[in-house]
Input
Amino acid sequence: MEEQEKWEEFLRWASEIGVSDSASHSSSSSCLGRTLVVAHFPNQGGRGLGAAREIAKGELVLRVPREALMTTESLLLRDEKLRIALGRRPRLSSTQELTICLLVGVGKGKDSWWYPYLLQLPRTYDTLASFKQFESQALQVDDAIWASEKAISKVRADWKDVVLIMQEIGLKPQLRSFKAWLWASATISTRTLHVPWDNAGCLCPIGDLFNYAAPEESCTDNEDLSEASISSSQMLNSERHDEKFQRLTDGGYEEDVNAYCFYARKRYKKGEQVLLSYGTYTNLELLEHYGFLLDLNPNDKAYVPIDSRVLSSTSFSRESIYIQHDGRPSFALSSVLRLGCAPQNSWKAIGHLVYTGAQLSVDNEVSAMKWLAKTCLQVLRKMPTTIENDKLLLRFIGEMQTFMPPVCCFKGQTCEREINDFFQADGVCDGIRDISLPMKAKRILERWRLAVQWRFMYKKMLADCIVYCDELISGLSISNVSGNNGKC
Ligand SMILES: C[S@@+](CC[C@H](N)C(=O)[O-])C[C@H]1O[C@@H](n2cnc3c(N)ncnc32)[C@H](O)[C@@H]1O
Output
């Protein structure tokens, strides 16, 4: 079957089971077309859902009935043998169960009820768990390397746990392999949506085509519902779901209608991509769970080492002490630094002031900012490459992704060693012919690009923090001098 045919078959199947982008009932052969269309958005997730018309903020844009959702429960309902096998293993995690169920579903081929949906799933993913040693090392920052190594060993341990069960239930050897497990776990990690009855969540046909945008803090007034040109029934829906604007995600399972419902988080023009917030994630978390990064992520964070004595003398959690995406210290980081730069014997007495976020004194503020700038600089200096090196390397990787320049092109470049390491990495040179890279090498190249982009953005946050601190210090010094002048 041609790709187009498979796709139309999928939309027909979804329409027949009640998936719809329209509030009014329709017997159309496609579940989309009235509010949403599938389109390609090269810089924002590739395949995604675009607005088929102007969409008002708060409007219901898609409804996926419970029957269409692929969950462990719905899969087990259709497979008694599997239900009995899993029933005998109560120690499996809900995600392990769903992963096995998904592989069993894939193994059924055309006999699976979800076959048209399964055919549309991506073949590969770039989540941290799929990183090999070369890509993990390319992250350069210990915490990030550790996160990727942890993700890799977790997915392997989960697989080892269930190999016997998969054999027992007669899963074909290629579906029992680690490669298949990695694929199924990444499918679940990147595509499941929350449901109240299962921690593993659900796979939601059509609903999982929404690409991600980070949640915004507040919605602008000029996008108010009253201005939107929506019908009264849509308005009713909008009013009913007013509270959803306050939430971090804009879709959810609704018991009263037995369906997963998705709402527009803002007004969309025709043709614009309709995006969904899966939650608040740093770039490392996005990479870990979804295999991509945002160039501009308002929730990104960089952690710097802090003296444990200062840390333990406040009640701020370690997670709250970070540099923000724009280089500014978080409230907790500023507070902790102010305390750390004050004499230790005064910590108890000034603790309450620190929690209010107030500056203690100009000198204290300058010391805190100096300490932060110095720490960022030390961290940057310890990195194997600079921001400029990474920028250049990203350019080279981009070029290598479109055409393969001869290796001698990189001779003498600062990133020559890392490029050589790429060619030494497992699988890159297998089957390499003149200028075209084999598929496996292209996958490694993409994951390497993500790793370099991640470390580049991490370093950029530290560099921006230095600029922020320097500006603050000079501002404070000027006002201090003029203040002193005034006194004199
Ligand atoms: C739920 S799926 C969204 C649909 C997906 N693009 C598809 O073709 O099926 C989530 C995946 O889409 C991609 N994605 C989503 N939002 C993205 C974004 N803003 N930028 C880049 N990739 C994104 C990532 O690969 C992610 O794992």
Observations:
- The pocket of S-adenosylmethionine is lined by residues 44-48, 122, 190-191, 208-209, 211-212, 290-292 (CB under 6 Å).
